Amino acid sequence: MKAARWYNARDIRVEEVEEPKVEAGKVKIKVEWAGICGSDLHEYAAGPIFVPVKTPHPLSRDVAPIIMGHEFCGRVVEVGEGVTKVKVGDPVAIEPVLRCGKCPACKKGKYNLCEQLGFHGLSGGGGGFSEYTVVDEYMVHRMPEGLSFEQGALVEPAAVALHAVRMSKIKPGDTAAVFGTGPIGLLVIEALKAAGASEIYAVEISKERLQKAKELGATYVINPKEEDPVNKLLDLTGGVDVAFEVTGIPAVLQQAIDSTAFEGETVIVSIWEHEAGIQPNNIVMKERNVKGIIAYRDIFPAVMELMRQGYFQAEKLVTKRIKLDEIVTEGFETLMKEKDQVKILVKPE
């Protein structure tokens, strides 16, 4: 079968690999659609970050080159012994978190904080940028009737956004700012809308993405190339209740913190390529809070229900659909160059 494998930064190759086989407790998926994530782009531009290179990942036992793709859905084509959650033919969205089940976080049910955290499609063991992949039974979530496979490919990134909002202190009627309106930032805006935020401010340099932010529920947009976002937010709100940092740019993290009110909160959603310097006094003197979130837990069913209600719609978020053979030139390179792109989906066939 064909698969896109990460060898090194700027070196992803589509090549023939052996089709995976089902084992006990596992499920074989024919991949229908897979999305290119910001984390994938980080790996392509400046990796390795999650990709295991010198030492095999402790859970996947895999090392680069690895098959990429962790935002995906498909149809069950085979189940291993003992699998009861799904059957052959079921449409499923994949929750790609690799967890040990034994560390303190896992024992408390907070498996996204696992000491050996990894992701199917980033940490080895197969991935969605392939015709078929095999995953553990716990990773599969049967998609409800009426949800398209394109929607299924958006469940994973929407779960990141919904988890970020759930983990924040946002309450109905509160104000929020989202710094960065790439795919996750846009999904955060929709999640904030679902959570009842009264005002949602989007901060972004791309005019096309700002327009998309408005379409998805932002009540006011700010272009940092045209005005200082911190001053503007302070003028408009006196400081927002919660700011979400979704760029991974060091200077933006300080802006997000400074845009919040006293006792305000900044939620860091990004994965970082480099260290970021901040001024702690800006946190201390206002008794602000800064917290990070990673991935999600116990949230896929809620995401799919919100999709049934009209949130996180593919027709508003997917800007390009490509074949697996085009993943480097029309996928990764396009996302590096064209900031008006939102979500690119890959058809692995």
What does it look like?
This protein is of the alpha/beta class and 349 residues long. It has 2 domains: 2-142 and 313-347, Quinone Oxidoreductase, Chain A, domain 1 (Alpha-Beta Complex), CATH 3.90.180.10; 159-292, 3-Layer(aba) Sandwich (Rossmann fold). It is built from 11 helices and 18 strands. It has helices at 38-46, 104-107, 149-167, 183-195, 207-216, 229-237, 250-258, 281-284, 300-308, 314-317, 327-337, and strands spanning 2-8, 11-16, 26-35, 66-67, 71-79, 91-94, 97-98, 118-119, 132-136, 140-142, 175-179, 199-203, 220-222, 240-245, 260-268, 289-292, 318-323, 343-347. The strands form 4 sheets. Strands 3, 5, 6, 9, 10, 17 and 18 form a 7-stranded mixed β-sheet that branches. Strands 13-12-11-14-15-16 form a 6-stranded parallel β-sheet, sandwiched between helices. Strand 12 (199-203), helix 5 (207-216) and strand 13 (220-222) form a beta-alpha-beta unit. Helix 3 (149-167) packs across helix 4, helix 3 packs across helix 9 and helix 4 runs parallel beside helix 5. The chain is globular, with a radius of gyration of 20 Å. The mean pLDDT is 96.
Low-confidence blocks of residues: none
Determine the number of helices (DSSP H or I, runs of at least 4 residues). Answer: 11
- Which CATH architecture of the largest domain? Alpha-Beta Complex
Mean pLDDT: 96
Shape: globular
As a whole number of angstroms, the C-alpha radius of gyration is 20 Å
CATH-level-4 superfamily name of the largest domain: Medium-chain alcohol dehydrogenases, catalytic domain
Distance between the termini: 9 Å
Q: What is the class of the largest domain in the CATH system?
A: Alpha Beta
Q: In total, how many beta strands?
A: 18
Question: Which range does the strand content fall in?
Answer: 25-35%
Q: Outline the biggest β-sheet.
A: 7 strands, mixed
Structural class: alpha/beta
Instruction: Give the proportion of residues in helices.
Output: 25-40%
Query: What's the number of structural domains?
Result: 2
* SSE series: EEEHEEEEHEEEHEHEHEHEHEHEHHEHE
Any idea of the CATH topology of the largest domain? Answer: Quinone Oxidoreductase, Chain A, domain 1
